[in-house]
Design goal:
heterodimer, A: mainly alpha, elongated, B: 331 residues, mainly alpha, two-stranded antiparallel ribbon, 13 helices
Chain lengths: 81, 331
């Protein structure tokens, strides 16, 4: 079970980040308005929202990958000693 | 006369359990006769095991869904789209079992299995997200549908690494989806889950350590696609994602560490078997960092211990999935 504590912590971190990401999107991305009139303005606002949402998702994946890989190589080092 | 949903659930579960349990030995005998076998590489003597046992789970599930469709006629179109999606994914898996498909083409082909859900229009593009609540995704949701089938299908396929892990973790995932669906009042999802659980429980009896049969890609891809389809049809998308985190983690770690879609037979193996029968994480920097390799990072373990670790992580993520459903329910 000792081996699982680190992995379970990553699992819980990823879950908390889903909620954090949803809160950021709900609080900052969804209400975003570029204040540009006409269809062009609506299209630009929607595009910015999609880009920001995608960037957040990529940031989430990058943090997840970095934490998991760091944990793995540290655990391998600890296992070797 | 309207039949109570819990009766349909019990009938669906019993039908798939009985059919799959009876059919699996026959599928095993057929696979042996045809030479459709694989080596159990995590056992010291590398025994030869019949593959494609997933055909029995697929047949059991099909019969149970047909029965559910007869008993719950208002939802017949929904059941039809579900079973067609599962069969399309199973077909991709069957082709892959006979003649391996390239690792880049397989996700694309499994994504096409979402076609019946599109064509029969059985999806609702208004998912409920945590914190935000119900959102309207009229354009984005249909675009995401192929991923909602392909990702779970391939994640379940990649999680079939030890005896019993695919069936065991999928059963826990489905139990979490059932609890969440009951809380959110989605009986259609509960009925579909019961049909699939029946098949998986029966299959697990033959696939647990030491395995007498392997599911093959026909089984893993169809089970994963079924979980994805249940998430869409039952509108429990976020709950399903959280419940499937160990399988998704396993696939994501492997892909992100190698940097591309890879063929398991052409990359350095993530783990190896020692002379004493224990499994150990490979130290090769080029090998994919899978969940099994992470579990073994601190030291060697027996296959049964790795299985228990998978199940423990799955139980944690399923608890988080139920907690997610409670948080969604309170919005």
């Amino acid at each position: 079970m000792r081996q699982l504590i680190g992995i379970a912590a990553i699992l819980i971190m990823v879950w908390v980040m889903i909620f954090l990401g949803a809160w950021i999107i709900g609080a900052f991305v969804v209400p975003l308005d570029l204040h540009i009139d006409g269809w062009w303005g609506r299209a630009a606002t929607s595009s910015v929202k999609v880009i920001l949402g995608s960037l957040l998702a990529l940031l989430w994946l990058w943090i997840w990958k970095t934490v998991a890989q760091t944990y793995f190589w540290k655990a391998v080092e600890r296992g070797a000693t | 006369m309207q039949i109570p949903p819990f009766i349909i659930c019990i009938a669906s579960f019993a039908a798939s359990l009985g059919i799959c349990y009876t059919l699996t030995p026959k599928v095993m005998a057929w696979a042996k006769r045809r030479g459709i076998t694989g080596k159990d590489v995590h056992k010291p003597d590398h025994p030869t095991i019949p593959e494609m046992g997933g055909i029995a789970t697929l047949i059991g599930l099909t019969f149970s869904i047909c029965l559910a469709s007869l008993l719950d006629q208002p939802n017949t179109i929904e059941y039809l789209s579900f079973i067609l999606t599962v069969h399309l994914a199973g077909l991709v898996g069957a082709v892959d079992d006979f003649r391996p498909i390239s690792p880049k083409l397989k996700p694309v082909l499994t994504a096409l299995a979402a076609a019946p859900i599109y064509l029969l229009n059985t999806y609702t593009p208004r998912p409920v997200l945590p914190v935000i609540g119900r959102v309207r995704l009229t354009i984005a949701y249909p675009l995401l549908l192929p991923f909602a089938i392909s990702i779970p299908a391939n994640a379940v396929n990649m999680a079939d690494v030890m005896n019993g892990t695919m069936a065991g973790t999928s059963i826990l995932t489905l139990v979490a989806i059932i609890l969440a669906s009951l809380l959110l009042g989605r009986w259609d999802a509960v009925i579909l889950c019961c049909g699939l659980i029946g098949s998986l429980v029966a299959f697990y009896a033959y696939n647990r350590n030491p395995a007498k049969v392997f599911a093959g890609d026909v089984g893993t891809l169809s089970v994963g696609a079924a979980i994805g389809a249940i998430a869409i049809l039952g509108r429990v998308e976020v709950v399903a994602i959280v419940a499937m985190m160990p399988q998704i983690m396993n696939a994501f770690y492997g892909l992100s560490s190698v940097g591309r879609l890879y063929d398991r037979t052409k990359t350095s193996r993530p783990i190896s078997l020692r002379g004493d029968g224990t499994l150990v994480a490979n130290r090769d920097k080029q090998a994919p960092i899978t969940l099994t390799r992470m579990i073994l990072a601190r030291g060697p373990m027996r296959e049964a211990e790795v299985f228990k670790s998978f199940m423990t992580l799955s139980a944690i993520s399923c608890s988080l999935a139920v907690l997610t459903a409670i948080l969604i329910w309170r919005i």
